[in-house]
TrEMBL record:
Assigned keywords, A-Z: Cell outer membrane, Membrane, Transmembrane, Transmembrane beta strand, Transport
Name assigned to this protein: SusC/RagA family protein
Entry membrane topology: Multi-pass membrane protein
Subcellular location field: Cell outer membrane
Entries under Pfam families matching the protein: CarbopepD_reg_2, Plug
Originating species: Sphingobacterium siyangense
Length: 1124
């Protein structure tokens, strides 16, 4: 034999006989070929292909003698494999790729098997099973309803099987997708098996990718298209879609309405609870994540156990979220897509307040009940307000409706372009979003005080194949954010409503001036704001603030194959630069408030009144405050990787170094001016045998600036094992319906060096200029001298998370139904705690930080997901359910030794569990009060007040209730259970999807809402008017106790009376769409329905008085366009 590469150009039919295989250049089926001829011989075609691809062929001369010229061949930039298939389509030849060389051989002649017709209702079926023309040996052929009837294919891929008539055959083979074929009247069935795509599916793991079948760690991935929901923040799409992720949305304020999320709950109280978020290998903030458009995401993975996260060392203790963005593709023409949508947004629920008449009647009831003789609202004022005689003399202000709109309109536009060729690829994306708030604009202002956030994000990726072995990629992520809002923060605007009742003053008196400086706002003397009380509307409209933020993340990464050293070896490097800057401007002014001094009816049926200013005249000019801040970070990450398969043995390895340098652009002091630096090395080794037995070992060796020499570096190893039972022949014979069953387990340690924002705890921090310190048992002696802001602890070291995980992956019916279940335990030790609270101040340490490794927490739980997919010709359905349970227990904490009152200890309870008094009910009468333990909570105790349980009488025998009687109660504020069900249905051109998401085992305290308050002006929630204790309604289980004009501490202390169940179920999102050619129109909604026992406000907002910025219900109309 000879190589065709040595043929003379003048010869059209000369070939060379080869006597041995020669291993030359590597062949990649991804190389492209172009051929266009009216007529060409096969040898000439092979010569052209060799020139274009540098590929070598092996072919016998005798094989060339029997081929005919090829007519009208037109192959335009097709992969090598497709080109060869086209060339040999009508020839008696086939090709294979063997060790990088194209081998041409004779096409096998089909010799028909002769099936035999059997008696007794049975028939003989014969046939072959192949893949890409290659015979498959050992394929299982069984009768679907009678698995005992079966056989396997021989070395030529042939089988013969006697089966009952009208049977259905199941063809199954390890690594290939099952096929079911009804025999009907057929007697010969030839089958082409295709590789099981789930086996070749690649998932992103720490610092690389792995085949999904070889993963032994606990990870969860989600399709990027499922993250597209009608809100501006990507984090709101996580809850209920990803098992192991606990996510709740506490606010609906534009720009601050992203979800707080945790991976497998909370395992520390050191302040560092957020997971690590990586975008294309570089750490980003949750704000950066929220700004991403789903269209730019290629893959989205959550890493949960130690095997998955140990490689990140110091950064992976709380789990890792990995996002990779799309890159360019080799396309004939650019792929362009766009999305435009407009939204109507309104509050899901708002607190309801009483009207003015109810307020005054309840106020009089509260004053009368105390018997203090304080001034009541007159019946004349109550009647005048009820009749609406005059809005200024008898105001009845609904502050909420006067200050906030019922809805707002938001818009978003996204544009993407993807394309490229064999050498260069590109992906470009731009997204613009405008989110508006609910605050009303004041017409007299030259500025708009409403909240508005304009956000623009760009993702530009370019990937270049410099050679067949060298690749480089440039990725640029840019985010611009322009914020505009009232002079006071939006949550404070809502909170002000609670501190202004409806009847004491109007918003403003009739305007007769020229501009905003002439407005006479309503007010009342006696408060703390310029001797007056807050006018919420005046505070909202007298000023504005705006801020501009920019984030630029530039990443360059490259890869160089080192096959010349050994096949499968590759060098990679990544370097990134991130810069964040923020500029703010705040302009606010004072405002003058007025109150009616005297009034009288006028002949026209109205009222005349004279006004007097409350307090002193204010400066009405807009003052200006400006500020700038920012930071920058450089990250460098070189690595060596190795991946190789030797027969049934698959091995891989990774060795990686990383270093980070973080600097503040405008440092405020010496400490913040010092760079924050980290460095570390990472290693990973994996082994797999026959896709059945899997092993993985990882380690991270990391250094941190926060620890002294000797403790600065930490070693964090992990190990994982997996066993794929479904690849065992005995298992497939016993359970043919099970297409995948993998059992896996892992153990490892992960570190954390984040000390709640503090730095250098092994060093002391002293203040020398004008400093002093105070000592003494009663803190009554002050000396001039240095003030210790922080005491040194040279022994402080890593917070360590030891993680254990056992998991099962189950696929049924060719993986149409999948279950992933994980059971885990995490023991967090050496938790960072500021110990100053338990060090007696007699040493002069009040306010001095003293860090130590004293905390321990155990976090246990499980999470699982179930997925079912079915697709037919005209319709398809996909359902996915997730469930996450995460329960933590504090084992050790920095607290006093509660040897006497153990009920006060946090040990044995979860982080975030409420501490309060155990309420029994309301007191019936004075006799019961006199015969009950003395309640020393403060305030005057009377019938209708809360009765508490004495928990310590058996301990101290004092027969009284004080702060020692508090106990841990309810569930933590962070939900322990999160679950979800998502469904997607398509029928022809229509599609419909929805997500149900719920949380459970969470509690919160309602507070800050008690009527009137010490200044007697606090507003009253409607539920109090509807169900409160009174002499006329002496219900000892009423929703609210006896009214009091002043804060009655006996009734306002945190207790089980105010503890509420925070569980809820929401129809989180739903969408219906219609597609036609290149367009799709869709209608969607977010936060559509809420089911909960708690009715006062959206339970997802949590405790307090419900007067934060409310979460939003969104209705969205949009269109998607796609041009290929």
């Amino acid at each position: 034999m000879r190589y065709i590469g040595s043929l003379c150009n003048t010869s059209a039919k000369v070939a060379v006989l080869l006597t041995a295989f020669i291993f030359l250049t590597h062949v990649s089926s991804a190389q492209n070929v172009t051929l266009k001829h009216k007529q060409i011989t096969l040898s000439e075609a092979f010569q052209e292909i060799r020139k274009q691809t540098n590929v070598d062929f092996i072919i016998k001369t005798s094989q060339l003698d029997k081929v005919r010229p090829i007519q009208n061949i037109d192959i335009q930039n097709k992969p090598l494999k497709q080109a060869l298939e086209k060339l040999l389509e009508h020839q008696p030849l086939v090709f294979t790729i063997d060790n990088g060389i194209i081998v041409i051989s004779d096409r096998e002649k089909k010799t028909p098997l002769a099936p035999t017709v059997q008696k007794n209702g049975k028939v003989e079926i014969v046939g072959t099973v192949k893949n890409d023309g290659n015979n498959l040996y050992g394929v299982s052929v069984k009768v679907k309803d009678s698995p005992s009837i079966g056989t396997t294919t021989d070395g030529n891929g042939r089988y013969i099987l006697v089966v009952p008539t009208n049977s259905t055959l199941i063809f199954s083979y390890v690594g290939y997708a099952n096929q079911e074929i009804a025999i009907a009247d057929k007697r010969r069935i030839d089958v082409q098996l295709s590789p099981d795509q789930s086996l070749s599916e690649v998932v992103v793991v720490g610092y690389g990718t792995q085949k999904k079948t070889s993963v032994v760690g606990a990870l969860e991935s989600v399709k990027p298209e499922t993250l597209r929901i009608p809100t501006a923040n990507l984090s709101n799409a996580l809850g209920g879609r990803l098992s192991g992720v606990i996510a709740v949305q506490r606010s609906g304020e534009p720009g601050a309405d992203g979800a707080s999320f945790f991976i497998r709950g909370v395992s520390t109280f050191s302040g560092a609870t957020n997971p690590l978020i990586l975008l294309d290998g570089v750490a980003i903030s949750k704000g950066d994540l929220d700004a991403l458009a789903p269209e730019v995401i290629e893959s989205f993975s959550v890493l949960k156990d130690a095997t998955a996260t140990a490689v990140f060392g110091t950064r992976g203790a709380n789990g890792v979220l990995i996002i990779t963005t799309k890159t360019g593709k080799d396309l004939n023409k650019p792929r362009i897509s766009a999305r435009a949508q407009s939204q109507i947004s309104r509050p899901t629920s708002i607190p309801k307040f009483v009207d003015g008449v109810s307020y005054m009647e309840m106020f009089n009831e509260a004053v009368t009940g105390r018997g203090t003789g304080e001034i009541l609202y007159s019946q004349d004022k109550i009647n005048g307000t009820r009749l609406g005689l005059d809005p200024y003399v008898y105001p009845n202000v609904d502050w909420y409706n006067e200050m906030f709109k019922s809805h707002t309109i938001n818009n978003e536009l996204n544009l993407n372009v993807q394309g490229g060729g064999s050498k260069i690829g590109y992906f470009l994306s731009a997204t613009g979003n405008i989110s508006n708030g609910l605050l009303r604009k004041f017409d007299l202002n030259s500025f708009d005080n409403n909240v508005s956030v304009k956000r623009y994000s760009f993702q530009n990726n370019i990937n270049v194949n410099l050679t067949s072995t060298t690749k480089i990629a440039l990725k640029l992520n840019a985010q611009l954010r322009d914020y505009y809002g009232a002079g006071v923060d939006a949550p404070s605007v809502f909170g002000d409503i609670m501190n202004a009742n409806p009847v004491d003053f109007p918003i403003m008196f009739p305007f007769t001036g020229i501009d905003r400086r002439d407005v006479q706002y309503g007010g009342k003397a006696g408060g703390t704001v310029n001797n007056g009380f807050i006018n919420p509307f005046a505070r909202m409209v007298n000023g504005y603030q705006n801020g501009f933020q920019s984030t630029l993340l530039t990443t360059i990464d490259g890869a160089q194959k080192l096959d010349f050293i050994t096949k499968g070896l590759e060098f990679k490097a990544l370097v990134s630069f991130k810069n964040w800057s923020n500029t703010t401007t705040k302009r606010t002014s004072g405002y003058n408030q007025y109150m009616i001094n005297s009034y009288a009816p006028d002949p026209a049926g109205g009222y005349t009144y004279d006004l007097v200013m409350v307090g002193q005249p204010q400066n009405l000019s807009l003052g200006t405050e400006t500020g700038t801040s920012g930071d920058r970070e450089i990250y460098f990450q070189p690595s060596i990787e190795y991946n190789r398969t030797f027969g049934n043995h698959t091995v891989s390895g990774l060795f990686l170094y990383n270093t980070t340098d973080f600097n503040v652009n405008n440092p405020a002091d010496l400490i913040s001016s010092l760079p924050r630096r980290r460095q570390g090395i990472t290693g990973r080794a994996t082994y797999g045998f026959a896709n059945k037995y899997l092993a993985e070992v990882n380690f991270g060796y990391n250094g941190s600036e926060n620890f002294a020499t000797g403790s600065r570096f930490g070693f964090f190893p992990s190990v994982g094992l997996g066993y794929v039972l479904s690849n065992e022949k005995f298992f497939t014979d016993l359970f043919p319906a099970v297409s995948n069953l993998k059992i896996r387990g892992s153990w490892g340690k992960v570190g954390n060096d984040q000390i709640g924002g503090g730095r250098f705890p092994y060093l002391s921090d002293l203040k020398l200029d004008g400093a002093s310190f105070t000592t003494g048992i009663d803190q009554n002696t002050t000396y001039t001298g240095p003030t210790y802001l922080q005491f040194a602890n040279p022994l402080i070291s890593w917070e360590v998370a030891e993680k254990k995980n056992i998991g099962v992956d189950l696929g049924i019916l060719n993986n149409k139904f999948n279950i992933v279940f994980d059971l885990y335990q995490e023991d967090r030790t050496n938790i960072f705690v500021d110990r100053s609270a338990t060090i007696p101040n007699v040493f002069g340490t009040a306010g001095t930080k003293v860090y130590g490794n004293v905390g321990e927490v155990r976090n246990r739980g499980f999470d699982f997901s179930l997925e079912w997919n079915k697709s037919e010709k005209d319709w398809g359905i996909s359902m996915r359910g997730t469930f996450t349970y995460a329960h933590n227990t504090v084992l050790k904490n920095n607290e006093p030794a509660f040897t006497k009152y153990r009920n006060l200890s946090q040990i044995g309870y979860s982080i975030g569990t409420n501490l309060g008094y155990l309420a029994e009910r309301l007191f019936i009468d004075q006799a019961e009060i006199d015969n009950s333990p003395l309640q020393q909570l403060g305030g005057f105790v009377a019938p209708g007040d809360i009765k508490y349980k004495d928990l310590t009488n058996d301990i101290d025998g004092l027969n009284l209730i004080n702060s020692d009687d508090r106990v841990r109660m309810g569930y933590p504020t962070t939900p322990e259970i999160v679950y979800g069900l998502s469904t997607s249905i398509n029928y022809k051109k229509f599609d419909f999807s929805f997500l149900l998401q719920g949380v459970d085992r969470t509690s919160f305290m309602i507070s800050g809402f008690h009527p009137f308050g010490n200044q007697g002006v606090r507003n009253v929630l409607q539920f109090i008017a509807e169900d409160r204790w009174s002499p006329e309604n002496p219900n000892i289980f009423a929703a609210y106790p006896r009214l009091s004009k002043l804060d009655n501490l006996n009734n306002t202390e945190a207790s089980s009376y105010w503890l509420r169940n925070g569980a809820f179920l929401k129809l989180r999102s739903a969408e219906i769409g219609y597609s036609h050619k290149f367009a799709r129109i869709f209608l969607s909604g977010y936060n559509l329905l809420t089911f909960s026992k708690f009715k006062l406000w959206d339970p997802e907002q949590g405790g307090g008085n419900g007067l934060g910025y409310p979460t939003q219900q969104v209705f969205n109309l949009g269109v998607q366009l796609r041009f290929n």
